[in-house]
Design brief:
The complex is a heterodimer of chains A (317) and B (249). Chain A has 317 residues and is an alpha/beta fold. Chain A has two domains: 165 residues, HUPs (Rossmann fold, 3-Layer(aba) Sandwich); 116 residues, 3-Layer(aba) Sandwich (Rossmann fold). Chain A is 25% helix and 27% strand. In chain A, 59% of the residues are buried. Chain B is α/β, with parallel strands linked by helices. Chain B has one domain: HUPs (Rossmann fold, 3-Layer(aba) Sandwich), CATH 3.40.50. In chain B, the strands form two sheets. A nine-stranded mixed β-sheet of chain B has the order 9-8-7-10-6-1-4-5-11, with helices on both faces. In chain B, helix 2 links the parallel strand 4 and strand 5. In chain B, helix 2 crosses helix 5. The interface between A and B is large, with 92 and 82 residues.
């Protein structure tokens, strides 16, 4: 049977992790259909129909799908569930909020946050903040799976021409109301998909000092991350948090500044290709995962780092 | 209002996890256990709501082996009024947990159910949403702020893009994020008092729900190790290495 992927989008554009989830979903079964629930999201449906891995797009257009109300989404997805062996989405806050609600109604034990598709029913997933990998086999008839997007490459976006079919909305929930969304707008690359991430921790001492980090981020075209301690202390907003309970990032280069390296932080970044740690405490656990460690006071090291970067003739973007 | 708070006993967040050599799981013998961190936030929030005069009773519930009771006892010490311990012998999946919680909700009739957004052992992030689905209640996940209104909650949620605020009618399920509040420590007199608070014990098998596993754990292994790195002596050396050796800038 086929796989149904729930698309994440903002009614205008497909959110990038949807493409990573498409790659994983088509490894489960090539007959991949994508469900777009949205309001005036025709462009989203069209973009997804052009993804070569997608065989069919089901588009449901209604104002009740303008925002991600899990109750409304779930009712619509359940209507289509009987035609599919697997229902999948990204394991970000979108899919984490949504998928268990679907799974429970289908009486299915969900497999969360997979990092590898071994077969149609067997998956690899990290447990204990990524300190162990579990191979699990789902024995449910219908499987609900969320996918760790950074563990799969994004699918090609063009060349396909899948059929788009329209479908009717389900009933709306009267007990949940969307009030507002405070989205942090930034010209920088998105944290989840950036090639370079530079993160600050408690060692930054305050929010103003994050300017030392943002100056370097501008130079390297990097996204800015933070440890839970820095977010808890109010130095920076929650959408920057990297870790077990924040975002998982796998950039080519991760620079950890003033971050001690608690288990919960390492869970979010230790799969990065190259890790740099800058910390004045030479015993800090972050050095155990760093390819390049610099034991130094960050308030001296960061300005020097910027001036060394300025000396380079070229910087990869 | 009456608030039911679900708490889970997990390996303490500071413990370095060791995988068993036979691949059957992780080592739990003689390992420090504590309450799942965001479950502490869930208890704290319930206590704050009660202190503000907006809740009458807080019931703490855990599901697990005999020792799981410790987490309920801790919740009682920080302000829960009474406890429930549903005994199971094996690790059960979030779907089974939510089925057990549904039975308890039907018996206790709480207006709100709070719990942490995710357990730091299996990292599933499922139970609250599943319980909400089974009860057909609204869900407010990853809460970083809760405002109690008349028969509704205004909840600010931490999402990837920033923050989202929704309103859910009571009864509702809330899963708590770490920034919701600062969990308090239990004082010694309150720990003593908590010993006298009642904990009702229930056998999961008496609840008539199917808690058999649906997912087979085939093996548990250590993640691939990173190869050891080096220390550099200066910023200049660091930049040269990144440029010429790692070739990432």
């Amino acid at each position: 049977m086929s796989v149904l992927l729930i698309a994440e989008h903002n009614n205008k554009e497909v959110r990038p992790f949807t493409y990573n989830a498409i790659t994983a979903a088509s490894q489960i079964n090539e007959d991949l259909h994508v469900l777009v629930l949205g309001h005036q999201a025709d462009e989203v449906a069209k973009s997804l129909s052009e993804v070569p891995n997608v065989k069919k797009v089901i588009h449901v257009d209604n104002e009740i799908y303008e925002n991600y109300i899990a109750e409304n989404y779930t009712a619509a997805i359940i209507k289509h569930a009987e035609n599919y062996s697997h229902i999948v989405s990204s394991a970000n806050t979108f899919g984490k909020n949504l998928m268990p609600r679907i799974a429970a109604l289908l009486d299915t034990s969900q497999v969360s946050d997979i990092i590898k598709v071994i077969s149609e029913d067997t998956f690899l997933r990290p447990i204990y903040a990524g300190n162990a990998f579990a191979t699990v086999k789902s024995n449910d008839k219908k499987k609900c799976v969320t996918i760790r997007p950074t563990s799969f490459d994004p699918a090609d976006k063009s060349g396909g021409s899948a059929e788009i079919t329209k479908s009717d909305p389900a009933e709306a929930s009267s007990s949940t109301k969307f009030l507002k969304k405070e989205e942090v707008k930034s010209d920088r690359p998105e944290l989840g998909t950036a090639r370079i991430v530079i993160s600050g921790g408690r060692g930054m001492q305050n929010g103003e000092n994050f300017k030392l980090i943002s100056d370097i981020a501008d130079k390297l075209n990097a996204a800015i991350g933070a440890s839970r301690a820095a977010v808890d202390a109010g130095y920076i907003t929650n959408d920057h948090q990297v870790g077990q309970t924040g975002k998982v990032v796998v950039p080519d280069l991760y620079i950890a500044v003033g971050i001690s390296g608690a288990i919960q932080h390492l869970a979010g970044m230790k799969e990065s290709k190259v890790i740099v740690a800058i910390n004045k405490d030479g015993e800090a656990p972050i050095f155990s995962v760093a390819d390049y460690g610099l034991e130094a006071d960050l308030f001296e090291a960061l300005p020097q780092f910027l001036s060394e970067l300025n000396k380079l003739n070229t910087i990869q973007k | 209002m009456k608030i039911l708070v679900a708490v889970k006993r997990v390996i303490d967040y500071n413990v370095q996890i060791r995988v068993k050599e036979d691949g059957s799981g992780v080592v739990t013998d003689n390992v420090k256990m504590s309450t799942n961190p965001p479950d502490d936030n869930a208890i704290e929030e319930a206590v704050k709501i009660k202190e503000a005069g907006k809740a009458k009773e807080i019931v703490a519930i855990t599901i697990g082996e005999e020792k799981a009771q410790e987490t309920v006892r801790k919740a009682l010490a920080v302000g829960a009024d009474r406890g429930i311990h549903v005994k199971v012998d094996n690790v059960i999946e979030p779907l089974a947990v939510s089925k057990i919680l549904k039975k308890i909700v039907e018996k206790e009739n709480p207006d709100l159910v709070f719990m942490g957004k995710q357990a730091i052992d299996d990292d599933c992030n499922q139970t609250g949403q599943m319980l909400a689905a089974l009860l057909n209640w609204p869900q407010a996940t990853f809460a970083s702020k809760i405002e109690v209104k008349d028969n509704a909650l205004e909840v600010t949620r931490e999402i990837d893009e920033g923050l989202e605020t929704i309103e859910v009618n009571v009864p509702a399920i809330v899963t708590c994020d770490l920034r919701l509040n600062e969990p308090r420590y239990a004082s010694l007199p309150n720990i003593m008092k908590a010993k006298k608070k009642p904990i009702e014990q229930i056998n999961a098998s008496d609840l008539g729900v199917d808690i058999n596993p649906r997912i087979e754990q085939i093996k548990v292994e250590e993640p691939p190790k990173r190869k050891a790195g080096i220390k550099v002596a200066s910023v200049e050396e660091l930049v040269q290495k990144l440029k010429n050796e790692a070739k990432v800038i």
